[in-house]
Amino acid sequence: MRLYGIRVDDLYQTIESADFRDAEENKLIAVKSSPKRFTEYPLKVVYEKSGRDIFVITVYPLKKALGGKP
């Protein structure tokens, strides 16, 4: 998170109000665009949810905008 300047608030916002959601096996994926952060690229959070607990596996800004637009 430190490498990209990702804050804990960014994680919460992405998980709570994602623009795109998906699931792979037991992992949940949330992606959210934030025009003023991460050089306008969306933030991707891969996590697992167990009851009320959320375990973040990885988080990083994508290299492309949502929808594959450069």
Description:
The chain has 70 residues and is mainly beta. The chain has one domain (8-64). Helices cover 13% and strands 40% of the residues. Strands 1-2-3-4 form a 4-stranded antiparallel sheet. Strand 3 (43-50) and strand 4 (53-61) form a beta hairpin. The longest helix is centred in the N-terminal third of the chain and has 9 residues, at 8-16. The mean pLDDT is 86.
Secondary-structure topology with pairs:
Blueprint: H1 8-16, E1 20-24, E2 27-32, E3 43-50, E4 53-61
Antiparallel strand pairs: 1-2, 2-3, 3-4
Tags for this model:
4-stranded antiparallel beta sheet, 70 residues, mainly beta, single chain
- Helix content bin: 10-25%
Largest sheet: 4 strands, antiparallel
- How many β strands by DSSP? 4
Identify the strand order in the major beta sheet.
1-2-3-4
**Low-pLDDT residue intervals, each spanning 5 or more residues:** none
Structural class: mainly beta
Distance between the termini: 23 Å
Q: Please compute the radius of gyration using only Cα atoms.
A: 12 Å
- Determine the number of helices (DSSP H or I, runs of at least 4 residues): 1
Average pLDDT works out at: 86
Gross morphology: globular
The ordered string of helix (H) and strand (E) elements is HEEEE
Beta-strand proportion = 35-45%
In total, how many domains does the architecture comprise? Answer: 1
